[in-house]
Amino acid sequence: MIRACGLDPAAGSGLNGYAILESTDCRDGVLIESGAMGSLYKVLERLKGCNVVAVDAPLTIPYRGFRGVERRFMKTYHVRLLPGGLKGMARLTSVGYSIRALMEEAGVAVIETHPGSVAKINSLEGTGDVFDAIVSSAVALAHICGAAQYVIDHDGLLAIARFSINRDKIELKR
Questions:
Q1: pLDDT of res. 112
Q2: Which of 53, 96, 106, 110 has the most CB atoms around it within 10 Å of its CB?
Q3: pLDDT of 87 strictly over 80
């Protein structure tokens, strides 16, 4: 059984959205759990059984301004991102960096994604922490199943996927 998870962490005192998909064949995934909690550590405990967690936060710390991977991602997909080096993004970047360390210590692989852009690319409508976590979990499933696409630069990797959502089922497009 494959477990692919998504996480939309809060940079401050907000809620942390999370989603867990299960798949047996890499064609599609079924949403088995999603929600939002105030405690990031409680969310991370729930995600320890995942094969991969896709996180909506910078996982590498930039020198300043945009990271190279963010510039390349915007140019490739014609979307806008906030620079990881922006003063207001510093807390989220720090949270992402910590999540990566904690999950990898627990044996869970972590990748970075931007669910707002992924939703736009897939013509999906929705907002909020849980929606972003569900989109991120679909990217994690695509990563596990070899169906993700990546933008890579010297300072990071951003993953996207093409998929459709039908109720609680996510179908990957290859």
A1: 98
A2: 53
A3: no
Q: What's the DSSP call for residue 61?
A: -
The two beta strands, 28-37 and 16-23, are antiparallel
Q: What is the DSSP string of 16-54?
A: EEEEEEEESSSSEEEEEEEEEES-HHHHHHHHTT-SEEE
Q: What is the pLDDT of residues 41-56, one digit of tens each?
A: 899 999 999 999 999 9
CA–CA separation, 9 and 105 (whole Å): 18
- Enter the tokens of residue 43: 């969310």
For residue 140, which amino acid is it? A
Q: Would you tell me how many other CB atoms lie within 10 Å of the CB of residue 121?
A: 17
Spatial CA neighbour of 159 closest among 144, 169, 36: 144
DSSP labels for 154-165?
Answer: TTEEEEE--EEE
Contacts of 100 (CB under 8 A, 6+ apart): 55, 59, 110
Taking the complete model, does pTM exceed 0.90, yes or no?
yes
Q: Per DSSP, what are the bridge partners of residue 40?
A: none
